[in-house]
Amino acid sequence: MHGPASSGWPLVALCAATGVYCLLRMRSNVEEQRRAAGGEALMGFGMAAMAVPAAVFSPPSWTWPGYAVVFGAAALRALWAARTGPHHLHHLVGALAMVYMAVVMSAAPAGGHADGSGGVPLVTGALLLYFAGYVLLTGARLIPVPAAAGPGLAGAGWGDRPELARACRLSMGIAMVAMLLTM
């Protein structure tokens, strides 16, 4: 996180655009869509803020513990929601990954960069494997299936289209992999 500007700005734009789309999805008529979109909007905007290049903005020292608290609360909410179904576990892993990155960044030197000289820590490696697998699985689910396109989707609003929600999740998964690679 807070890597070079060449990769930082596209990551900021991708995450912010995803966050905006997720906010718009919160207007859905489907309650589950609204609930998931709120957490995804928080993730998108949080990831965008964490990805701002350090050359442009070095956040104050209290920012990282603040991120840890916000995403810790999001993790608790996802854990509570996971009792209704396993699909909330991904939100839990994502929120915990954000807490982990915030804690690592709070321990980093004043420039806001983690010291990568010690190799890839076990937690970072495990999160990279999880999110890389998630990206591959979600990307495969975006491949159109002729039988899936039918009259049921014709009346759905753009915020209720499952392929758009999957594309949103895919972009955040890719961004998470990019952010973890810079740890």
Which residues form runs of ≥5 with pLDDT under 50?
A: 111-116
Distinct helical segment count:
7
Kindly report how far apart the N and C termini lie. 6 Å
Residue share in β-strands: under 5%
The largest β sheet comes out as:
none
Description:
The chain contains 7 helices and no strands. By secondary structure, it is mainly α. The chain is 67% helix and 0% strand. The protein has one domain. It starts with a helix and ends with a helix. The chain is globular, with a radius of gyration of 17 Å.
Features:
single chain; 183 residues; mainly alpha; 7 helices; 67% helix; 0% strand; globular
Short description, anyone?
With 183 residues, the chain is mostly helical. It has helices at residues 5-25, 31-50, 63-81, 89-106, 122-141, 151-154, 162-181.
Any chance you could write out the topology, listing elements then pairs?
Elements: H1 5-25, H2 31-50, H3 63-81, H4 89-106, H5 122-141, H6 151-154, H7 162-181
Helix pairs in contact: 1-2, 1-7, 2-4, 2-7, 3-4, 5-7
